[in-house]
Automatic annotation (TrEMBL):
Keywords: DNA-binding. The keyword DNA-binding applies. Residues 20-88 form the HTH merR-type domain. InterPro entries: DNA-bd_dom_put_sf (IPR009061), MerR-type_HTH_dom (IPR000551). One of its GO terms (molecular function) is DNA binding. This is DNA-binding transcriptional MerR regulator. Pfam families: MerR_1 (PF13411). GO terms for biological process: regulation of DNA-templated transcription. SUPFAM superfamilies: Putative DNA-binding domain.
Length: 108
């Protein structure tokens, strides 16, 4: 471990769930407004963590989810429907991954 490096911060670069981005930076990265991020938070699509100062912080995983919701909204889908679609897509992806793992285990 490099000198001066804290063990708890070493893997943050690879951690998709680490809340690394401020609201302004997150909005910029996905081409949305901070208001959009607040709206999908209110719709409970994503729940940003809060810094010690109370500011919203977003992870890369949350930004991927938010970007997908933005794509749907940009194509005319109402925000509540877009959030539900993204949740269902995410659940389907998890189910397919689990199914594949179980098939692999059964084949072994």
């Amino acid at each position: 471990m490099p000198a001066g490096t804290k063990p708890s911060t070493i893997n943050h670069f690879d951690d998709d769930d680490y809340p690394a981005y401020t609201m302004g930076r997150a909005a910029e990265m996905i081409g949305a407004t901070p208001g959009f991020l607040r709206a999908i938070g209110e719709a409970r699509l994503i729940t940003p963590l809060r810094s010690e100062g109370g500011h919203r912080r977003y992870s890369r995983y949350q930004l991927r989810i938010a970007a997908r919701a933005r794509e749907l909204v940009d194509s005319g889908t109402p925000i509540d429907a877009a959030c539900r679609i993204v949740i269902l897509e995410d659940q389907l992806e998890d189910a397919l991954r689990i199914n594949e793992e179980l098939r692999r285990l059964a084949a072994d």
